């Protein structure tokens, strides 16, 4: 094993590939100045050389002379797959989308270098699956659909061509909430066949030069709930062992913990005492759920579901039938109750731009609270302010922002690391003096706090495995509950493909 990059050279590294001749390793990275770029480094080590392409997703042509890469503009909502010479010169657009339509990252070249796979999205198809496959031809600049199948999710690192050019292999899901499976799609007719059928997630694909074998990563996440007797998460003890996975937790006003777990075989809403006793399942409809939030009066749980292109639902804490909350906004997720319990704030995607909205608990017309691209709302304990991650003008990465509870102008902005867990949101401490967020470093994740008055962020945890995933503070402001988990991964080979 030869180390070709020193630890600490970059904030984040992704999309690591060999050049076709094997002499270089290409990768995408974010440097200490929060600038992203494609780099190359000699296979046996040396100084990394930047390629003037600001992207975290790319693919090299089979002859090693061109590069396809992904671009996005949060402000105009345009996404595009670009093609350029290997030094970044002569860029041109292969495919693009805007507002309700978009293209995804991950566009591998065909073995002859004449085509690219394009993953297209269309919000107007919701609540049905929104993704489809297309093939871009470099010969005539045409874009042709690859079959009529629709997909819920496609792993950007899990698309490869068979060396014969007759098939494309995918790591993907057809239905929201299913595990990631390996599929083979015929070219040019687009007929899809499923190659794996179990409860494991498969992500990332590589294929041998003769097309007889695939290598992928088999992944399983196990996480549990931990509760601290005080506000220090480092003092938390495990009350719910990590035998399955959890998708968020929330304290109820009476000191119990609501959480979403797959311990019964599906992602259902559960409630338990703070010491882990008295576990009771609240829902049983076998529909995937995440991000539970308990209302201030302790009567209702609101959660998001990826079914039907993401929706918000509510269910009585005592049990009963879940009902959908009509928001009138595409893709609502990450719900948060206002302090008076009358409204739910959430992230949504109208016209391809993520923004913060609020809607009455009964549903109805949603009100936009932020104009800039923003996500993951969190109300201050006194109910006067709203924190979220947002994209400031001319920035490439999200910042932490504080707005008035009714939206409007920005009150404060704080820089945060490029590796923040944006999907796990900011959260105020009970005294309202700090806002916490989770920072990832490889597989390791820890909790940090930004003082609202200003100053340097404070590190709150230094966990090894299992790492921290989510957290919530009790209503009396005296305890913190967290979920900690780890991914169990194996390299898996699929053989006999020919």
Note down, in words, how this protein is organized.
The chain has about 500 residues and is mainly beta. About 0% of the residues lie in helices and about 50% in strands. A hairpin with a 5-residue loop joins strand 11 (about 130-135) and strand 12 (about 145). The protein is globular, with a radius of gyration of 23 Å. About 40% of the residues are buried. The model has no long low-confidence stretch (mean pLDDT about 95).
Could you write a compact summary of the structure shown?
The protein is an all-beta fold and 498 residues long.
Give the N-to-C terminal Cα separation. Answer: 32 Å
Query: In angstroms, what is the radius of gyration?
Result: 23 Å
Mean pLDDT comes to 93
The largest sheet, given as strand count, sense and whether it forms a barrel, is:
5 strands, antiparallel
Strand-residue fraction?
over 45%
The beta-strand count equals 41
Low confidence ranges: none
Shape: globular
